[in-house]
């Protein structure tokens, strides 16, 4: 009993040392803040986190994509391009990738067009309850994607509320298993992220610049086009990138709302890994999806950087 108490006492942390440790860390940073490696010291924990939880898994997926498939052992180490050849030679897989890119682009554009006015209203509106909208924006983020996708599945089904409302006007149109239905469902997932990003940028705009535009004779539209919108472009670009990347890898919405008539690539990756137990093919498909996403993101950032730079000049 005494040994156990001694052990617990030995490992007990003295909370009174926290201010001392904090002061030692702060003084260490102050002494080395001008050194070239200071930034790496501060970013070290994050870099380690990203290395173990992102870069190493991605590298492993890339390596596995060249392995041989085996029905018993799932995968056999080696080097083959058969997995990439299988993907490129399959019209179903290539079509699913194109549909994924198409839906990602349309969903992203739709999300930004709807999210920007909402974020603008929350930030600049004089309505006393405008901040309540922030809670309504955050609320969907508290629900998992699977639950939200199933909710849209119930709404868009043949006996769902949407069809019942359309039936009152003599219309019959099922959004389930259609591209518009998938876009609407995905956009509902993306909007909270986009709105919060846009709000964070709109809040940083100097109000004196807007007042100066009005004082110089600009109306509401001119002030928005020549002051507010250009200053909020970083938020638009950030929200666009986040929305596009999230859509490229969407799974729950693609399964509940889209499949099988609107095939997207993520469900095929899941089926290859779990149903077919073809991990090398699933890895190859995953890496192709990642490569396409990175290429499109790079092209978008290059185009927006040129345009923003040109406008600044």
TrEMBL record:
Highest rank taxon of the organism: Archaea
Q: From which residue to which does any coiled coil extend? A: none
Q: Tell me what this protein is called.
A: ABC transporter permease
- Positions of the ABC transmembrane type-1 domain: 97-300
Where does the chain cross the membrane? 46-67, 96-123, 129-147, 182-203, 224-257, 277-300
* Organism name: Haladaptatus pallidirubidus
Entry keyword set: Cell membrane, Membrane, Transmembrane, Transmembrane helix, Transport
Do you know which CDD domains this protein is assigned to? TM_PBP2
Write down the InterPro entries for this protein, in alphabetical order: MetI-like, MetI-like_sf
Bilayer topology term: Multi-pass membrane protein
State the GO CC annotations: plasma membrane
Q: Which Pfam families match?
A: BPD_transp_1
Q: Does the keyword Transmembrane helix apply?
A: yes
Name where it's found: Cell membrane
SUPFAM superfamilies, A to Z: MetI-like
Determine if Transmembrane is one of this entry's keywords: yes
What processes in GO biological process is this protein linked to?
transmembrane transport
Q: What is its main location?
A: membrane
Give the family, as the similarity comment puts it. Belongs to the binding-protein-dependent transport system permease family. CysTW subfamily.
């Amino acid at each position: 009993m005494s040994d156990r108490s001694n052990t617990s006492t030995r490992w007990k942390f003295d909370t009174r040392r926290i201010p001392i440790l904090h002061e030692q860390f702060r003084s260490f940073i102050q002494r080395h803040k001008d050194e070239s490696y200071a930034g790496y010291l501060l970013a070290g924990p994050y870099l380690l986190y990203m290395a173990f939880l992102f870069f190493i898994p991605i590298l492993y997926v890339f390596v596995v994509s060249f392995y041989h498939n085996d029905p018993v052992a799932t995968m056999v180490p080696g080097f083959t391009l058969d997995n990439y050849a299988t993907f490129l030679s399959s019209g179903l897989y290539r079509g699913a990738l194109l549909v994924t890119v198409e839906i990602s682009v349309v969903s992203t554009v739709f999300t930004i067009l709807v999210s920007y006015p909402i974020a603008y209203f929350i930030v600049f509106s004089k309505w006393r309850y405008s901040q309540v909208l922030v809670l309504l924006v955050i609320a969907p983020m508290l629900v998992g994607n699977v639950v939200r996708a199933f909710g849209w599945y119930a709404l868009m089904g043949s006996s769902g509320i949407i069809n019942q409302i359309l039936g009152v006007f003599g219309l019959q149109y099922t959004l389930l298993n259609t591209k518009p239905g998938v876009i609407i469902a995905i956009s509902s997932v993306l909007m909270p992220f986009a709105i919060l990003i846009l709000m964070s940028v709109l809040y940083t705009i100097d109000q004196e610049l807007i007042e100066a535009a009005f004082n110089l004779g600009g109306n509401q539209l001119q002030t928005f086009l020549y002051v507010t919108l250009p200053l909020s472009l970083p938020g638009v670009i950030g929200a666009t990138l986040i929305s596009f990347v999230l859509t490229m890898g969407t799974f729950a919405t693609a399964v509940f709302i889209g499949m099988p008539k609107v095939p997207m690539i993520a469900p095929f990756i899941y089926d290859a890994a779990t149903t077919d137990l073809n991990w090398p093919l699933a890895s190859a498909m995953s890496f192709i999806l990642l490569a396409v996403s990175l290429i499109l993101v790079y092209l978008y950032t290059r185009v927006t950087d040129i345009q923003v730079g040109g406008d600044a000049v």
